[in-house]
Amino acid sequence: MCSSRKIVCSLLVLSVLQVGLGAASIALGAVAISSARSGHRTQQGHASPVWSGFLVCGLCGMLCARKRTGLVMILFSACCICGLIGGILNFQFVRALVKRPDTVGSLHMAAMSLACLGISSCTLSTWLTCRLASSEQQRMFLEREHSLHHSHEMSEKVEEERRRGEHSPVASQCFSVGLHLHVALSPLYLNKKRTGIQQELNAELLKYSNSLKGVPLAYDGIKIIGQHGDIFDDQGYIHLNVEASFVIFKPRKGETLVGVINKIGVGHVGCLVHGCFNASVVKPAQLTPEQWRDSGLKLGGSLKFEVCQLDADVAGVLLIRGRLEKS
């Protein structure tokens, strides 16, 4: 995480530098065009600093340092490449002007220096963006591994409580079901089918399933149905039918959950349920903003609420919508 923070800070510094270089290039280009028009000898090189693109690169870099999403990183990399090409063309056009005897040498030398600095900053920014993307991918992988580990611990706790005959809120919200699944394995797993099946099933964990109306936490007892898989037409994937036992987190409407508060907003409270699942609890309509602010809610505290609805985004991340109990 520290490495990612350093990369973001470096990227932000370079972006500010690019904004300054872009503004200075535009100013120099405007001065060059003005002096050239007064002498009626305007050339393409006089206007080239204006469209160098460093200003746009800098603004996109600031957005990238703030958002750090894949789409923004791709956009910033594209801007840096365009800025790099624009800087090289700018340098060549201005260099051609310097050779003319009737040009202002100091003005064009300054424009060439800015172009060189801009080219260097675009190159460094592209490299830093690749490093940032790699760091973010590693962070997401570690978070995924942590969540999977937590879900397995949670499922083991549920099974242990059920064996002992104990009743707990966690056990009442989790169900063990046997499922028949269709899996398409890559040829990579031809000699290690079980590993490939586990990879496919792991990808479905902690994602809300509309068919199950819940979130698979863990699985066990993988069995391949049939002796052989199928290959269809010219596709390389091996299609298998498998069955496995899944532990499903499936809170029902009206049930009571307990979450740890991680966000307090004007109209809702954000909670983390069982250390895995996000919940949003709306402010009761009868409470005024002052009463809501003075209700004693604090970050890190526990909050008991009633489940109203289960939602999920396109990535399958579960969001539990709830309301405070009447008491």
UniProtKB/TrEMBL annotation:
<dbReference type="GO" id="GO:0000428">
    <property type="term" value="C:DNA-directed RNA polymerase complex"/>
</dbReference>
<protein>
    <recommendedName>
        <fullName>DNA-directed RNA polymerase I subunit RPA43</fullName>
    </recommendedName>
</protein>
<feature type="signal peptide">
    <location>
        <begin position="1"/>
        <end position="22"/>
    </location>
</feature>
<dbReference type="InterPro" id="IPR041901">
    <property type="entry name" value="RNAP_I_Rpa43_N"/>
</dbReference>
<feature type="domain" description="RPA43 OB">
    <location>
        <begin position="251"/>
        <end position="292"/>
    </location>
</feature>
<dbReference type="InterPro" id="IPR036898">
    <property type="entry name" value="RNA_pol_Rpb7-like_N_sf"/>
</dbReference>
<dbReference type="Pfam" id="PF03876">
    <property type="entry name" value="SHS2_Rpb7-N"/>
</dbReference>
<comment type="similarity">
    <text>Belongs to the eukaryotic RPA43 RNA polymerase subunit family.</text>
</comment>
<dbReference type="GO" id="GO:0005737">
    <property type="term" value="C:cytoplasm"/>
</dbReference>
<dbReference type="InterPro" id="IPR041178">
    <property type="entry name" value="RPA43_OB"/>
</dbReference>
<feature type="transmembrane region" description="Helical">
    <location>
        <begin position="71"/>
        <end position="89"/>
    </location>
</feature>
<keyword id="KW-1133">Transmembrane helix</keyword>
<feature type="domain" description="RNA polymerase Rpb7-like N-terminal">
    <location>
        <begin position="181"/>
        <end position="236"/>
    </location>
</feature>
<dbReference type="InterPro" id="IPR005576">
    <property type="entry name" value="Rpb7-like_N"/>
</dbReference>
<keyword id="KW-0963">Cytoplasm</keyword>
<keyword id="KW-0732">Signal</keyword>
<dbReference type="GO" id="GO:0005730">
    <property type="term" value="C:nucleolus"/>
</dbReference>
<keyword id="KW-0812">Transmembrane</keyword>
<feature type="transmembrane region" description="Helical">
    <location>
        <begin position="109"/>
        <end position="130"/>
    </location>
</feature>
<keyword id="KW-0539">Nucleus</keyword>
<dbReference type="GO" id="GO:0006351">
    <property type="term" value="P:DNA-templated transcription"/>
</dbReference>
<keyword id="KW-0240">DNA-directed RNA polymerase</keyword>
<feature type="transmembrane region" description="Helical">
    <location>
        <begin position="45"/>
        <end position="64"/>
    </location>
</feature>
<keyword id="KW-0597">Phosphoprotein</keyword>
<keyword id="KW-0804">Transcription</keyword>
<dbReference type="InterPro" id="IPR037661">
    <property type="entry name" value="TMEM196"/>
</dbReference>
<dbReference type="Pfam" id="PF17875">
    <property type="entry name" value="RPA43_OB"/>
</dbReference>
<keyword id="KW-0472">Membrane</keyword>
<dbReference type="GO" id="GO:0016020">
    <property type="term" value="C:membrane"/>
</dbReference>
